[in-house]
Design goal:
The chain contains 30 helices and 20 strands. The relative contact order is 0.11.
Length: 704
């Protein structure tokens, strides 16, 4: 296919051609009678370079693509060193699913911070400058769209998420909740909904009050729908299962994060209290919408409008048409030279202003809505969830006052001290000499801005990525009493990330040494007793000693009880039974650390006991197959056999499923007990299969 633009000249928006191309794309635009792809073709394999610290090599590839008017894929093929970085990284992901999760959690947290910062930068009121901001922002946030391409099931050759592994059908469950959440909220009383919203907040890592804002938007888009009580009850169970499940395979991560980033479409932009107004991804979506306003009345506007609520493809189409100087309706869309100058100016502006903007995200308090594990660590996330549950249900425990120095703040410390450059010499392996050099440099860091106003009676606590989470790094990192020197305590916590034990633990799991370091600064509580409460569906117990740490180490006494009421009798937690029952009901199986000061009970930590979900699949080949070749055949199908069927939906593809999910859902709902599996031509992580599996628990596989 050839859509003619101006000959020669540098491109500011080079094609990617690794997830799609001009002829094969999820979204297309009609240009002078020819359909041109306008989304996947502009996504790039940038993540391996970002994680390994090879940004200069990435810039070299991108610069060649821009100057040569070629694509990222072509220049990657010419650059053997860059190609090796990509192949090695994705090979590591295939071998170590923990690396896949680490990459997404840490990069996404970083991306959401940058999204907030860039969204606040204002563009001039011209088409060229709006799209200049869009294009520069798109390239800066290329990691996000690269993740979107991978977890969407594209780029099969290298994609670690398409390993053919069995995957839990719960993993894609967020997709099935998108349209039903407004009806679910309407069907619940306030307490039930608060519990459901907090469970969902633990999954998407944003405060439950922002879940309400997202559901408001979903209700505006989809209405309340017409669901029977059984469907609503099943949807509530999906939400509970998501909040209590642990995913371990690349296939599961692909399905989960595909829905995770999609759900954030509906979340508010601000991840800090009082942050910028708007919706998530507005650094990209807002200038795209502004650009669309600038072309109202032109035929291309109505063509792009048919794309629907997918904003990024519209912005990409406008930027591409400007970048190539392509004529639309007999004239160019705008001034090409002015657009390209604007892209250069915006790239420079983002480089210059981003660091200052990111400095507003170096610390988080309980009032801030975000609890991304890659930004604030697992321990702070647990405390934030306890705080939100306390407020939502008016519970009686306390949480010590404090804040967390985020991974953004710690990364800046390490950058200033030259630690980051040492780590990036090899993010996967660290020998003893380099490890000791890292620790020596940490001692020279100035942390005064982070401990300003912090009392001497403070505890600096580790809150690392993977701590109190699925990676199971409990006990790997250290906490320290300030003892009059909170700055040194902060540095000691950061040094514990590079202890021999911690380095070995990450290397055992195939993870990097490159990020996800956060430090909690929390008031120390004068206490008389402390301990750990273990709450599971199978048993309740308390280990109690002089403090929680001693209880964890096995000192003191251990009690058990058949009910929580009986469990707490005679312990320092007596009187807290109702609070514990609510926390267990809301969060599932958990461990809670506590200390007591007189009548006050302080919860100092919550660790979830997530359960792995059985991913075993049925034998598709042993079941009778029903072939459906159109929506019409789907409406007319009669499944009346005694044994379950495999329903093969060959007609489902990218070009005919947008906005038709409800029709598919209705068919599945009516025949759920007769369907043992569904086959089609959508990658397993795609949204329709996620919905089929996530809500109806019907296995899906891609047809051969």
């Amino acid at each position: 296919m050839s859509v003619e633009g101006q000959d020669g000249g540098e491109r500011k928006l080079p094609e990617g051609n690794v997830f799609g191309d001009i002829e094969d794309d999820e979204f297309t635009v009609n240009v002078e009678g020819e359909e041109a792809g306008t989304f996947k073709r502009f996504e790039y394999y940038t993540m391996p370079f970002s994680v390994t610290g090879e940004e200069e090599l990435l810039e070299e590839v991108m610069q060649e693509a821009e100057e040569n008017g070629s694509s990222f894929a072509e220049e990657l093929e010419r650059n053997e060193e860059a190609q090796q970085v990509v192949q090695d990284f994705y090979s590591r992901m295939k071998q170590n699913p923990g690396l896949s999760k680490e990459m997404m959690d840490n990069l996404l947290a970083d991306i959401y911070v940058d999204d907030n910062v860039i969204a606040e930068m204002e563009a001039d009121d011209t088409l060229e400058d709006k799209m200049g901001k869009f294009t520069a922002g798109w390239k800066h946030l290329a990691d996000f769209y690269g993740i979107e391409g991978l977890v969407g099931g594209d780029a099969e050759e290298l994609n670690p998420f398409l390993n053919g592994e069995d995957a839990s059908m719960v993993a894609g469950g967020l997709d099935s909740l998108e349209t039903v959440l407004p009806a679910l909220r309407e069907n619940m009383d306030e307490e039930e909904w608060n519990r459901a919203a907090i469970r969902l907040s633990s999954v998407v890592e944003r405060e439950h009050t922002q879940i309400d804002e997202a559901v408001d938007m979903l209700e505006e888009m989809h209405g309340l729908g017409d669901y029977d009580q059984e469907f609503l009850d099943d949807s509530a169970q999906v939400l509970t299962d998501l909040a209590n499940s642990r995913f371990d395979t690349n296939a599961e991560f692909g399905k989960f994060y595909n829905t995770f980033i999609r759900f954030h479409n509906w979340m508010p932009l601000n991840i800090k209290e009082g942050g910028p107004e708007g919706d998530q991804y507005d650094s990209i979506c807002a200038p795209a919408d502004d650009g669309m306003e600038k072309i109202e009345g032109r035929a291309i506007h109505s063509d792009l409008d048919e794309i629907g609520d997918a904003t990024s493809p519209k912005g990409l189409a406008l930027s591409w048409l400007l970048d190539e100087g392509i004529e639309v309706d007999g004239e160019t869309l705008g001034d090409r030279e002015s657009f390209q100058d604007s892209v250069d100016e915006w790239e420079q502006r983002i480089d210059e202003e981003l660091s200052e903007g990111r400095s507003n995200y170096t610390e988080f308090t309980m009032d801030d809505p975000a609890m991304y594990s890659g930004l604030v660590g697992g321990k702070w996330k647990g405390l934030k969830l306890l705080n939100d549950a306390q407020e939502a249900f008016d519970l009686g425990y306390e949480i010590p006052d404090g804040k967390v120095v985020s991974s953004v703040g710690v990364e800046q410390m390490l950058e200033d001290a030259g630690v980051q450059e040492l780590v990036e010499e090899d993010v996967f392996e660290m020998d003893e000499e380099r490890r000791e050099e890292v620790i020596d440099r940490i001692d020279d860091i100035d942390v005064s801005e982070y401990v300003e106003g912090v009392g001497e009676d403070t505890i600096a606590r580790s809150s690392m990525y993977g701590e109190d989470g699925a990676s199971n790094f409990a006990g790997t990192y250290d906490s320290f009493n300030a003892d009059g020197s909170p700055g040194q305590a902060v540095k000691d916590v950061v040094k514990s990330y590079f202890s021999e034990k911690a380095v070995n633990a990450r290397e055992d799991k195939g993870m990097t040494h490159g990020g996800g370091i956060s430090v909690i600064l929390q008031d120390a509580v004068e206490h008389e007793r402390g301990g750990v409460v273990h709450l599971t569906d199978e048993s309740y117990s308390i280990s109690e000693a002089e403090d929680a740490e001693s209880a964890v180490e096995g000192e003191g006494e251990t009690y058990s009880g058949e009910t929580i009421d009986r469990l707490v009798e005679g312990t320092a937690m007596e009187g807290m039974a109702e609070d514990l029952e609510e926390l267990h009901e809301t969060f599932g199986d958990i461990d809670l650390e506590y200390v007591t000061d007189g009548d006050e009970v302080y919860l100092t930590q919550m660790r979830p006991k997530h359960r792995a979900v059985d991913g075993e699949r049925p034998d598709f080949d042993s079941m009778q197959t029903v072939q459906l070749d159109s929506f019409e055949e789907m409406y007319e199908a009669e499944l009346d056999g005694e044994e379950p069927y495999v329903v093969r939906m060959d007609f489902l593809g990218r070009d005919n499923i947008m906005d038709r999910e409800r029709e598919i859902e209705q068919f599945l709902r009516e025949n759920q007990d007769k369907i043992g599996g569904v086959e089609g031509h959508m990658p397993a992580p795609a949204h329709i299969p996620n919905n089929i599996e996530g809500h109806f628990r019907i296995p899906y596989r891609e047809a051969s």
